[in-house]
Amino acid sequence: MRQCRGVRGAITVDANTPEAILEGTRLLLAMMIRQNGIEEQDVASVIFTTTPDLDAEFPALAARQLGWMQAALLCGHEMTVPGAMARCIRILIHWNTDKKMDEIIHVYLRDAERLRPDLCVLPPVDWNELELWIQEHLNPKPQPSARTSSRFQSARDGGKSAEM
User: Fold this and answer.
1) What are the domain boundaries of the chain?
2) Residue 108 annotated among the catalytic residues of the structure
3) Maximum Cα–Cα distance for the chain, whole Å?
4) How does DSSP assign 80-100, residue by residue?
5) Of the listed 23, 40, 78, 113, which one is catalytic?
């Protein structure tokens, strides 16, 4: 029976730069997608959060770079808690699937493995193959959907262009 399930993941990055945030987010998202067989059309929404020390880029841009142009994406910051892990990106995918809860593979990479050591046992990963998969799916200049573009154009020209 198809149900909406949550798929969790987290990764740490070395710096508060757009490059580090996007590279880490792409790696984490690609692992979550590949480990669970997630297709964009089955995604209800995705929430991306960062610790407050990461603000150089929206991590959701990584999903757009991987071609997820229609999925509902939201970014936010984690709560500031004393002693919490630094430079951490978290993803929660709400995914429509036939899989049971115990069949979902949650992904915790780098220092984020400490967050959920009980969920960090992943099948063997060919990291070079994963990087090739990311490169094959990479859309270096994600464009807004046609619906968004037409609304933006309409707003820019004072409503003179037709809505689609």
Assistant:
1) 3-156
2) yes
3) 57
4) --TTPPSSEEEEEEEEEES--
5) 78
Put simply, whether the predicted model's pTM sits higher than 0.70 gets the answer: yes
Q: What is the pLDDT along the chain (164 residues), one digit of tens a residue?
A: 999 999 999 999 999 999 999 999 999 999 999 999 999 999 999 999 999 999 999 999 999 999 999 999 999 999 999 999 999 999 999 999 999 999 999 999 999 988 876 766 667 778 788 888 888 887 766 644 444 344 444 444 455 444 33
Whether 90 is catalytic: yes
Please name which of 50, 89, 94 lies closest in space to residue 73, comparing C-alpha atoms. Answer: 94
For the structural domain made of 3-156, what CATH number should be given?
3.30.1330.40
Structure tokens at 60: 């959701």
- 64 included as an active-site residue: yes
Place of tokens 């094959």: 136
